[in-house]
Write a structure and sequence with these properties.
single chain; mainly beta; 14-stranded antiparallel barrel; 6 helices; globular
C-alpha cells in the first residue's frame, strides 16, 4: 500500500517544486439515508430495537409499493488539486460505506406476520437484493484546459474491506389451508467476504475504477458530461459463496407413535441437494454515475445562474456476462436507482450564497427539495441537504441527508 501511495503522489511532489503553483484542498463528508417507502420510525426500530406493534407492522407494509428500496452511504474524503498553466493534477482519498437493498412487500409480510394470515395465497419475494460494501478509494486525476473546453480523466485504486450480498432472483411461498401443504421455490445467490476478522480496515479485496468528464461552452451555456467511478473490486479466495435453486413441497408428517418420533421422519423435507457453498474469488461492482448538466446565467432578479441535469447509476449484481449494450441495461436496472432529473440555482445573498435544488427520481423515486448554504469565494464552507422536505417530518421522514464541504485555495 505504501508503494502504491508513493507512486500516485510522485507527480505532486515534483510539481510542488515549481514557483507560482495554485493549490486546492477540499474535505467532503456525505451522510445519506434514502427510502422509497419506509420511514424514519422503521430505521430507528431496526437500529435501536424496541417493541414492534401490529399497527406498526401494518403501517410499514402498506407504505410500500411493488419494490421497497433502501440506500445508505456514509463517506468522508480529502482531495488535493495542483493547477499549473492550463493543466491540473489531483489526488483524492475517500472512505466509503454503502448499503443498497430492494425487497417486495410480500417479504415484509412474511418477516413481520409469518404465513398464517396468507393461507391459499402465494407470497412472492423475487428480485430481492441486499448489498453492503466498505472500501477506501485512492484517486488520481488529470485535467487539460483548452480555450472553452476542459477534459478530465481519472483512475482509482480500491482497497476492499468487506462485502456482503444476498440476491434472490426468484422466490415464493405458497401456504395451503391450515398449512396442510407448503410449497417453497427459491433461487438464491449469496456472498460474504472473509468473516474471520472483524477489523473494519481488513484487506479482503482490490479493484480499479475509471473517471471521465468534459466541460465545454455553447454560446452562454456551460455543459458538463461525465462518467464517475466505473469500477470493480476483486475479493480474495477466502470469500464464501452460496448458491441454491430449489423447489420444496411439505405436506406434513403422520405420527403414529410419539415415542418413535425422530428427525429421520423429516429427512425428505429438510434435505436440500443443490445447496452449494465454497470459497472462491469473486468480482463485484461499485456504484458508477453518468450523466450531464447545463448551466446558464439567469435573467431572474434573485438568481445568478440556473442549472439542470440528469444522472443515472450503473451497478450490476455480478460479473455474469461481457460488457455490451445488454450489460449496460442490466447494470442500470440492478442499481435500484431511478434516473434523477434535477434543476438548481445560485442566489447570492448578503452574508452567504444559497443553492436550492428540485429533483425527481433517485433511490426514493420521488420529488425532493435540496438546499445548500455556502460562505466565501476563495476559501469556502458549504453545508446542505438533499431532502429539506424531510427535515421537518419527524418519524414520517423517508430520507435523511447532510453533506459538508470545506475548500481552501492558496
Amino acid at each position: 500500500m505504501k508503494k502504491i501511495l508513493f507512486i500516485l503522489c510522485t507527480p505532486l511532489f515534483l510539481l510542488a517544486q515549481t514557483d507560482g503553483n495554485k493549490h486546492n484542498i477540499e474535505w467532503n463528508t456525505n451522510l445519506l439515508f434514502e427510502s422509497s417507502s419506509l420511514d424514519k420510525s422503521f430505521l430507528n426500530t431496526m437500529l435501536y430495537g424496541g417493541y414492534i406493534t401490529d399497527s406498526m407492522k401494518t403501517k410499514w407494509i402498506n407504505a410500500g409499493g411493488d419494490n421497497n428500496v433502501l440506500y445508505s452511504e456514509i463517506s468522508n474524503g480529502l482531495s488535493y488539486t495542483y493547477r499549473f498553466k492550463k493543466k491540473s493534477i489531483g489526488f483524492q482519498f475517500a472512505d466509503r460505506n454503502i448499503l443498497d437493498a430492494s425487497f417486495t412487500d410480500d417479504l415484509l409480510r412474511l418477516g413481520f406476520e409469518g404465513n398464517f394470515n396468507y393461507q391459499n395465497e402465494t407470497l412472492d419475494f423475487s428480485n430481492t437484493n441486499i448489498r453492503a460494501d466498505r472500501f477506501q478509494q485512492y484517486k488520481l486525476d488529470y485535467t487539460l484546459n483548452f480555450n472553452t473546453t476542459s477534459i478530465t480523466i481519472g483512475g482509482s485504486f480500491l482497497a476492499g474491506n468487506h462485502h456482503t450480498s444476498f440476491i434472490v432472483n426468484n422466490g415464493s411461498l405458497f401456504t395451503d389451508t391450515n398449512g396442510i401443504r407448503i410449497d417453497a421455490n427459491y433461487d438464491i445467490h449469496s456472498f460474504v467476504t472473509d468473516t474471520s476478522s472483524f477489523d473494519p480496515f481488513a484487506r479482503n479485496g482490490s479493484g480499479l475504477a475509471f473517471d471521465f468528464s468534459a466541460d465545454f461552452s455553447i454560446r452562454n451555456h456551460k455543459v458538463n458530461i461525465y462518467l464517475q467511478d466505473a469500477g470493480f473490486i476483486m475479493w480474495n479466495s477466502k470469500s464464501i459463496t452460496l448458491i441454491t435453486d430449489t423447489n420444496i413441497s411439505f405436506s406434513g408428517t403422520e405420527i403414529t407413535d410419539i415415542m418413535s418420533f425422530n428427525d429421520s421422519l423429516l429427512n425428505d423435507y429438510n434435505t436440500i441437494d443443490d445447496l452449494k457453498t465454497k470459497n472462491k474469488s469473486i468480482k463485484t461492482y461499485i456504484p458508477a454515475n453518468f450523466g450531464f448538466s447545463v448551466m446558464k446565467p439567469s435573467s431572474l432578479e434573485y438568481f445568478e445562474t440556473i442549472s439542470a441535469g440528469f444522472n443515472a447509476k450503473w451497478q450490476p449484481y455480478s460479473d455474469n456476462s461481457p460488457l455490451n449494450f445488454a450489460k449496460l441495461g442490466q447494470g442500470i436496472r440492478e442499481s435500484n436507482y431511478a434516473p434523477l432529473y434535477w434543476v438548481s440555482a445560485v442566489s447570492k445573498l448578503k452574508y452567504f450564497n444559497a443553492l436550492p435544488t428540485l429533483s425527481y427520481g433517485g433511490y426514493s423515486n420521488d420529488f425532493n427539495l435540496g438546499l445548500a448554504l455556502s460562505k466565501g469565494e476563495k476559501n469556502k464552507l458549504t453545508i446542505g441537504t438533499q431532502h429539506l422536505e424531510d427535515v421537518f417530518s419527524g418519524d414520517k421522514a423517508k430520507s435523511v441527508s447532510v453533506y459538508f464541504n470545506i475548500k481552501l485555495q492558496f
